[in-house]
From TrEMBL:
UniProt superkingdom: Bacteria
Keyword line: Methyltransferase, Transferase
Taxonomic lineage of the native organism: Bacteria, Bacillati, Bacillota, Clostridia, Lachnospirales
Native species: Faecalicatena orotica
Gene3D superfamilies for the chain: S-adenosyl-L-methionine-dependent methyltransferases, Vaccinia Virus protein VP39
Name of the protein described by the UniProt record: Methyltransferase family protein
Length: 262
């Protein structure tokens, strides 16, 4: 992204985000996250979904009995999340806030942040601030569970790749550029979204939108150091969706952190 940060990361894309993410096995991801929460004794109570996007995982966890709060900096994403809330009837509180300076009304039993939301924080000092806020708002026995894309994924899987997908109502071209020295992955998105009003006459009219996004790669060691510097305790790290230790070819890593010192 053009240092577009998490604040403006999704605007036009919000309208079609769920369409293009329908190949993500959210139920499997949710089951994995739910298993981690239970493993650390978080079976109910308040849970914050940080960088909740359109609320898919927020809804999943609400369905598992948690009292959910969703925080995201995209008004467009939250509008869609609130539409889902109306459909489900779940009592979810959504807050439009920047995760680098989020504020809650009290503490929560757990904080989760998945789908590489934290990779959008491209400055380590700012990520440390996110961790400080997490430490501030966690219950004494609370846990913070998050995932992040690895440098291996940006360098070997995404970098310098073009991904294109076409659907009936929309299509996209997604160009990736990984700048190894800066450790920044730039996404250039070209979106073609059907204009329902203009397409009523029989012609298919599409509007083109362009967005630029940036994510930063972090190593597991860097994440540990930032957590400790923010006052959190590192508890565990897993190769995503397993209970195996991360390896050099891990594409996504999950970290579990606890509040403060024991």
């Amino acid at each position: 992204m053009e240092n577009t940060n998490e604040s403006s990361a999704y605007s036009s894309f919000a309208a079609v985000y769920d369409t293009f993410m329908d190949n993500v096995p959210y139920d499997e991801w949710g089951d994995y996250l739910y298993g981690l929460l239970k493993e650390y004794g978080i079976c109910d109570g308040l849970v914050l979904d940080l960088g909740c996007g359109t609320g898919t995982m927020t809804e999943y966890l609400a369905g598992r009995g948690y009292d959910m709060i969703g925080v995201d900096n995209s008004e467009d994403m939250l509008e869609i999340a609130m539409e889902k809330r109306v459909e489900s009837g779940h009592d979810i509180l959504y807050l439009e806030q920047d995760m680098r300076e989020f504020e809650l009304y009290g503490t929560v039993r757990a904080i989760v942040s998945i789908c590489d939301s934290l990779n959008y924080i491209t400055e380590p000092e700012e990520l440390k601030q996110v961790f400080r806020w997490a430490d501030n708002y966690l219950d004494p026995d609370g846990v913070f569970i998050f995932d992040f894309n690895t440098e291996y994924k940006y360098r070997e899987i995404l970098g310098d790749q073009t991904i294109a997908e076409s659907r009936e109502e929309c299509s996209f071209i997604w160009d990736n550029y990984y700048y190894e020295e800066e450790r920044i992955n730039e996404y250039e998105l070209s979106l073609f979204i059907r204009d329902e009003e203009l397409s009523k006459g029989g012609s298919e009219i599409y509007r083109r939108y362009q967005e630029t996004h940036y994510q930063r790669s972090y190593t597991l060691e860097e994440m540990k150091e930032l957590l400790l510097a923010a006052g959190l305790r590192f508890l565990a790290a897993y190769d995503a969706f397993t209970r195996e230790a991360p390896s050099e070819t891990s594409e996504r890593i999950y970290i579990i952190a606890g509040k403060g010192e024991e």
